[in-house]
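Hey, quick one: can you model this chain's 3D structure?
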Amino acid sequence: MPAKSKRRRLTAAQINEHIRTIQKAIKKHKRENKGEHFTAVTPEEIEKKLKRINSPMIISQGWSGTAPGGTVNYNLGVYNSDPTQAIWLLAHVWVGSGNIDRTVGTFLLNVDARFSRLTQPVFPGLTLAAGAFAILNFTIKVPSTVEETNYLGNSCLMQFNWHDIETYLDRGVFVFAVSSGAAVDSDLVSGATGTAIQGQSFNETRAVDVTVLSASDLAVERMVLDGYKQPTASAVVGARIYDSSTNALVSTSQDVNISAPSIGVPISIPVSATLVSGRNYRVGFYALGTPQSSLSGDVFQPASFPYTENSGLFRINSAHSVGADAFPQGPNIFAPRVTIRTRSL
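Sure thing. Here's the predicted structure for all 345 residues.
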């Protein structure tokens, strides 16, 4: 049974230590956030939260807008300010205008029923050590029939007692746009079952073959590579998009130089390309390290191909690689962890 939260008086030194720890966690969350928007508590807000509550709290959030029929990827940063471990923590996310309602019961019932209500993580919930931080990820599906406007999303952090009344801890609010011209982030390993694989060699071009399912052509704005690891080496990393039929490179971008150590920090690169509806492309990254032996990446092994990623814009047909900065011709069972941001044309 989780311990009941109690107000406690913190010293100025304890408050400053929490502020420093929380600011480090926020910096990490902001670096890993792949969405267009990000908010976080300020030092002044942290101090106010610490004085009014002695429980895990919401400290940061990131998200993007989407088009009708797309998905909003929302991530929530949670910090445990208690001196003891916190267990059975769950966050609930939904769309509605109730954030200003101070009554928890009616706040939770103010729901736009056109959207799903989501809860993370799985049973028995999140466990956070004293002074620890975690990020919870949510995918909000947007119906294709909703109006193109701005919507209010809500998050509520709770601690459960499986045989008694739960404890309300904290809340957050975010505004997301639904627009046919909105940028959409497509995680190319979402929407599939499979196995996350750590530490695969990554001194080559790794890509997935995709079919553009969007009814309109797509303008690419950026690509993000997750899970790249270089403990000792330096590396050159570049985003690549090839036409699957002609093998021609169809994207333009600037390669980036990554200095060690860099363990799993997302690498974001602006990209310019036009993807034609119905055509196939190989989308991925080229990486070359010095020395090569120490470089690796976390990848994903889908249970099967093809699958459609969560935004619905791309069908992922297969995975490929080649040991050079060239069209990835060879078959591979591992998909690189790539997110691509596009807008409809």
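One thing worth noting: The longest strand covers residues 167-177.
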